[in-house]
UniProtKB/TrEMBL annotation:
InterPro entries: Gfo/Idh/MocA-like_OxRdtase_N, Gfo/Idh/MocA_Oxidoreductases, GFO_IDH_MocA-like_dom, NAD(P)-bd_dom_sf. Residues 2-120 form the Gfo/Idh/MocA-like oxidoreductase N-terminal domain. It comes from candidate division KD3-62 bacterium DG_56. Residues 129-237 form the GFO/IDH/MocA-like oxidoreductase domain. This is Oxidoreductase.
Length: 332
C-alpha cells in the first residue's frame, strides 16, 4: 500500500484525494493547505489523515509519495524539496516555469532514483489514447496539422497567463500523438482584464516533419470549449471533451489533388463515425499509473522528460509573446 501526501487542497486537490483514496493499492495519509477552511474540509472528509498548514511537515512525514497541486509558481521549489526528501513526486502542470528549473527536477529525480511524473491529464484520457492508435494504424493517414481550443468565461487567473494555464494540455497531447520534436513556436495575445497577464493567446508550434499545432487559449470567451482536431491526409478526427457521450469522432473526409494538370481536386466524404471509449475517469487512470510506476519502477508516460519538453515549448511561446509574435526556436 503506497502512502500519499497531498500538498494543495484547492480547486483540484479534492479530485486528486478522491481518486487516490479510491485505489486499492494507495491511500492519502497527509494533506497540506495554507487555507484553514480548506484544511478543515480535507480533515472532515478523510478523518484518518494528518492535516498540516506547512508542506514541509508532509515532506518530513512517512509518506512514500507526494502529489503537488499548488499554484504553478511553487511547483519547482516544492517538487525539488520533495525529491530531496526521498519522495516520489506527481506534480501538476506545468512542472516548472522555466526549462532550466524543469531540467533540474529531472536531474534530481534521476539522482534520487525516484519517480517524477507530471499531471498531463489528457495523456491518460481514453480519447487521446485512441487518437494515438488511429494515427499509429494509419487510419488518418499522414498527420498534416492539429488545432485546439481551450476557452471559457473564467476562471480568471492572477498568477499565470492563459498560455501557461491552458497551454500544457495541447502541447502535451501533441507530444504524445506525434513522433516529431517541436522545433519552433510563436504566439500573440492580449491582456484585456489585467495588465501584463494575457487572458487570450493564439499559439502555433512547428514540429519536425512539418506538422503544425495551432491553439487558442482564453478565459474571456462566451462559451466553454475543450476540443482538439487532428487533420490527416486520409481522414480527420475531433476530440470534444465538452460532449457528454460522443467525445471522439472520425470524419472520413479528405482532398485528393489531381494527377493531371488542369484536372480539379477530388473531394472524398464518407461521413463520420463515433469511436467508442471506455467509461473511465482520466484522473483515476493518471493516479493509478503513478502508483503503478512507484511499485514497478516503470517510467511514467508523462515523466519529467515529457514535462520538460512541454515547458520548453511554452517558454519559447512566451518569448514570442513578448516579441509580438516573432518565431522562437524551441530548445532541446
Amino acid at each position: 500500500m503506497i502512502s500519499v501526501g497531498l500538498i494543495g487542497y484547492g480547486s483540484w486537490g479534492p479530485n486528486l484525494a478522491r481518486n487516490i483514496d479510491a485505489l486499492d493499492d494507495a491511500h492519502v495519509t497527509a494533506v497540506c493547505d495554507i487555507g484553514p477552511a480548506r484544511l478543515a474540509e480535507a480533515a472532515s472528509h478523510y478523518e484518518t489523515v494528518d492535516a498540516f498548514p506547512d508542506y514541509r511537515a508532509v515532506l518530513q512525514g512517512p509518506s512514500d509519495a507526494v502529489i503537488i497541486a499548488t499554484p504553478a509558481r511553487t511547483h519547482f521549489g516544492i517538487a525539488r524539496e520533495a525529491l530531496a526528501a526521498g519522495k516520489h513526486v506527481l506534480v501538476e502542470k506545468p512542472m516548472a516555469l522555466t526549462a532550466a528549473d524543469a531540467e533540474a527536477l529531472v536531474e534530481e529525480a534521476e539522482r534520487a532514483e525516484r519517480v517524477l511524473m507530471v499531471g498531463h491529464l489528457l495523456e491518460y484520457h481514453p480519447a487521446v489514447e485512441r487518437l494515438r492508435e488511429l494515427i499509429g494504424t494509419g487510419t488518418l493517414g499522414r498527420v498534416l496539422f492539429i488545432y485546439g481550443r481551450r476557452v471559457n468565461l473564467g476562471r480568471v487567473r492572477s498568477d499565470e497567463n492563459a498560455l501557461w494555464c491552458l497551454g500544457p494540455h495541447d502541447v502535451s497531447v501533441a507530444g504524445y500523438l506525434l513522433d516529431g520534436a517541436p522545433t519552433q513556436a510563436w504566439a500573440v495575445g492580449g491582456s484585456f482584464l489585467r495588465d501584463d497577464i494575457e487572458d487570450v493567446v493564439f499559439m502555433a508550434v512547428r514540429y519536425s516533419g512539418g506538422v503544425l499545432l495551432h491553439s487558442h487559449f482564453s478565459w474571456l470567451d462566451p462559451g466553454k470549449v475543450r476540443a482538439i482536431t487532428v487533420v490527416g491526409d486520409r481522414a480527420m478526427a475531433v476530440f470534444d471533451d465538452g460532449e457528454p457521450v460522443d467525445k471522439l469522432r472520425v470524419f472520413e473526409r479528405c482532398v485528393e489533388l489531381p494527377r493531371a494538370v488542369g484536372d480539379p481536386p477530388r473531394y472524398h466524404d464518407q461521413g463520420a463515425r463515433t469511436v467508442s471509449l471506455p467509461d473511465t475517469e482520466p484522473l483515476r487512470r493518471e493516479c493509478q499509473h503513478f502508483i503503478d510506476c512507484i511499485q514497478t519502477g516503470a517510467r511514467p508516460r508523462s515523466d519529467g522528460h515529457d514535462g520538460l519538453r512541454v515547458v520548453r515549448v511554452l517558454e519559447a511561446a512566451q518569448q514570442s509573446l513578448r516579441d509580438q509574435g516573432r518565431p522562437v526556436a524551441v530548445a532541446g
